[in-house]
Amino acid sequence: IIFAGGGNIGRRLALRLEKEYNVKILERDPERAGAVSEELRKTIVLQGDAADEDLLQEEGIEDTDVFCAVTNDDEANILSAMLAKRLGARTVMALINRTSYVELVEAGPIDVAISPQQATIGTLLTHVRRGDVVMVHSLRRGAAEAIEAIAHGDRHSSKVVGRRVEEVKLPRGTSIAAIVRGEEVIIAHHDTVIESEDHVILFLVDKRRIAEVEKLFQVGITFL
């Protein structure tokens, strides 16, 4: 996992994740980079520009599972996340303050765009830890969420694959609205069967249940 930005958000995320994952922070400011490096035990802190293509390649961006841009500069976050995606990062995230910017990047290469006003550290940790959620949209100014999740595995290893919509045990206040299967968009009905690699669009009235939805799309140990 690579974080662009060693401010409060990047530092706190790294602190929570460094025991479980290999974490790096790219911080432009030398003094802040030094301070963060002293505070974190296992995280590698590098002083440099996250939009530097050579630096990203040197740090193995093509083998990175998650690149998360969390500086206080919207443009820098968007640029570095787009660059990381182009260079091979599996999932890229960006914190974006301006609503107009969020709308612009939703159709682009950035997988998850989150407004800091609508996100908590816990929410960000959930997105970083689970790669099956590829897009999160805040609705009604953060009161609800629309989630796009990918179904993996089979009926034995997944809680959703091979099951009709009515059979999926969704958290309260959650509904499946549609399924994207290849180039086809399917409006979900009670008897629609979810297949492996389907992109499932869900609506959540209670955003606190995001973690439950993401657990629903995790595969069991039998999935290879």
Brief descriptors of the model:
224 residues, alpha/beta, Rossmann fold, Alpha-Beta Plaits, 2 domains, six-stranded parallel β-sheet, five-stranded antiparallel β-sheet, 11 strands
Overview of the structural elements:
There is one protein chain. The chain is an alpha/beta fold and 224 residues long. The chain has two domains: 1-129, NAD(P)-binding Rossmann-like Domain (Rossmann fold), CATH 3.40.50; 133-224, Regulator of K+ conductance, C-terminal domain (Alpha-Beta Plaits, 2-Layer Sandwich). Helix content is 28%, strand content 25%. The chain has seven helices and eleven strands. It has helices spanning 8-17, 30-39, 53-58, 74-86, 99-105, 121-129, 210-216; strands at residues 2-4, 24-27, 44-47, 66-69, 91-95, 112-114, 133-139, 144-150, 174-181, 184-187, 199-204. The strands form two sheets. Strands 3-2-1-4-5-6 form a six-stranded parallel β-sheet, sandwiched between helices. Strands 7-8-11-9-10 form a five-stranded antiparallel β-sheet, covered by helices on one side. It starts with a strand and ends in an 8-residue tail after the last helix. The mean pLDDT is 84.
